[in-house]
Amino acid sequence: MNQYLNTRERELVKAAVQFKKRAQNLIKSGKLAAEHGVVAETCDRLLEQVYSHAENRLFALQQHENLKKSVQDNAQCPRCKSKEYLKLRGVDVSEKGWKMNKYFCRRCHIEFVWNRPNNPWDMLKFMEDFIQQLELSMQNPAIDEETKGQTRQVKEHMEQNLAKLIPVIENADKNLQDVKEKDEQMAQMLHEFKNYLLIEKIKLDTWENQQH
Which superkingdom does the taxonomy of this entry point to (predicted)? Predict the structure, then answer.
């Protein structure tokens, strides 16, 4: 779990563990009254909160990362129609604002942008825009009923997919936002606990010196 802690958390966890062991050893040896064990208990509660937060943060970050990878654009070269020779060259932005992957075909020696969003957040915009275009096309009096029916089916399918995607993205975004807010709270708490631990260490040093 330590590898999932940030630098501030890792440093304070190390200090808390060392202080706790020191206090426990002094209590066991009879050099420190048992009531001083409350500081060790405070350290335990801090460690529990830090590790719990680190676990929640890891989950939220992995959830977002998995969501990013969930969009597969299945790009293919517009000239040779193959995807075997494609190399990702970067990212471009459409006129409507969504990000798209830019590829280079090693067979045809051409660079092109695959006109599909490369992430779920922009996919929402893409699907909403596509549904709107389908709706407009259905209002065209020149379209026959068979084509209109097919368009309606595509539109309904897109709306179903959109309805599934929206809560997934909203949940992931909320989890990440909650973690960011908790990060700020934890940073303040760790700062306060660091000062508390410093005071308790001074007390312990003073008490030990008086015993000699």
Answer: Bacteria
Q: What tokens does 176 get?
A: 């990440």
Q: Dump pLDDT digits (tens) for 67-113.
A: 988 888 899 999 999 999 999 999 999 999 999 999 999 999 999 99
Tell me the backbone φ, ψ of residue 114, rounded to 5 degrees. -80, 115
- Cα–Cα distance, 13 to 113 (Å, whole number): 48
CATH architecture of 73-117: Single Sheet (2.20)
- Where would I find the beta strands (DSSP E) of 94-196? 99-105, 110-117
Q: Is the pTM of this model over 0.85?
A: no
DSSP string, 95-122: TTS-EEEEEEETTTTEEEEEEEESSHHH
Strands laid side by side in the 86-93 sheet: 86-93, 99-105, 110-117
How far, in Å, CA of 38 to CA of 140, rounded?
76
Q: Where are the domains of the chain?
A: 2-69+174-211, 73-117
If you search the block for the tokens 């595509």, which residue do you land on?
154
